[in-house]
Design goal:
The protein is mainly α. The strands form two sheets. A two-stranded antiparallel ribbon has the order 1-2. Helix 5 packs parallel to helix 6.
């Protein structure tokens, strides 16, 4: 929900975004993680599906199965736009088969998702007072935070 709210906030500032595609993609983009992890001894670990397929492909499978089972009719342009937003990746090499974001919707979702993840990760590693926090490999640094004076 938080990523969807961020994405819609960014889309409100422009006219080239397709809000219904962006909203649906924002709500679905991490849904496949429900099948990507398993709770083992009170810790989340990657499932076999998570290791071999990943959440992006899982959600695409779910969408395809739902379309077939419920005979959902979606205009081709909307369906392709949704698939693009859910599967594109900024900076992925072309030989990988993934496409660069080619719509404002795709760019907005990636930005909103990244900011959300960074905010959460930095929040967990930030110090209680102004200064540098704890190092984390996904950040590649120790986050620096300025805290307001009491």
């Amino acid at each position: 929900m938080e990523v969807a709210e961020r994405a819609l906030g960014l889309a409100a500032k422009g006219t080239a975004a397709c809000v219904h595609v962006l909203l649906l993609a924002s709500l679905l983009h991490d849904a496949g993680k429900a099948d990507e992890y398993r709770l083992v001894n009170r810790r989340f670990v990657l499932s076999d599906r998570g290791r071999l397929v990943g959440h992006r492909h899982t959600v695409i499978e779910w969408i395809a199965a739902a379309r077939a089972q419920y005979q959902v009719i979606v205009p081709d342009a909307d369906y392709l736009a949704l698939m693009h937003v859910l599967t594109c990746a900024k900076g992925a090499p072309s030989w990988l088969g993934m496409r660069e974001p080619q719509s404002l919707d795709a760019t907005i979702l990636q930005m909103a998702d990244r900011v959300s993840a960074q905010e959460e990760l930095i929040g967990r590693h930030a110090p209680e007072e102004t200064g540098f926090g704890r190092y984390h490999p996904h950040l590649g640094m120790r986050p620096f935070v300025v805290r307001p004076e009491a």
